[in-house]
Amino acid sequence: YIIKLYLFFLAFNTVDPEIFNEPIIKNLAEKYKKTEAQIILNFELSRGVSLLTRSLKTDRMIESLKCKDFVMEEKDVELILSLNKNLRKVDPKEEDGELFRMTPLFD
Hints:
Blueprint: E1 9-11, H1 23-32, H2 36-46, E2 49-51, H3 58-65, H4 74-81, E3 93-95, E4 98-100
Parallel strand pairs: 1-2
Antiparallel strand pairs: 3-4
C-alpha cells in the first residue's frame, strides 16, 4: 500500500553496533560467505528499506554494494526478524528547555 502512494522507508541510524556480535548474524555471514554488514544491508534492502551507508574507504563502499549479490532463504530472514526488540535508539528529548530531536516528531 505504501509503495502505491510513492512513500518509501529510509533507514536513519539503522545499525546498532551490537548487532554485529549477534550469533545469528555471525552464523549467516559464515553461511553465505559474506560480512556481517552485507547480511544486515541485504536484509534491510529485501524489506524495501532505503539505506544510507557511510564510508570514506573505497573497499568498504565496494563491499557494501556486494550486499545485493545474494538472496537469503526465508528461514534466515525470519531468524533476523526474531532479533527485533521493539526499541528505538533515537528518541526526541527535552534538553535545556528546547526540544532536541534527530527524528521528526511524527516518527
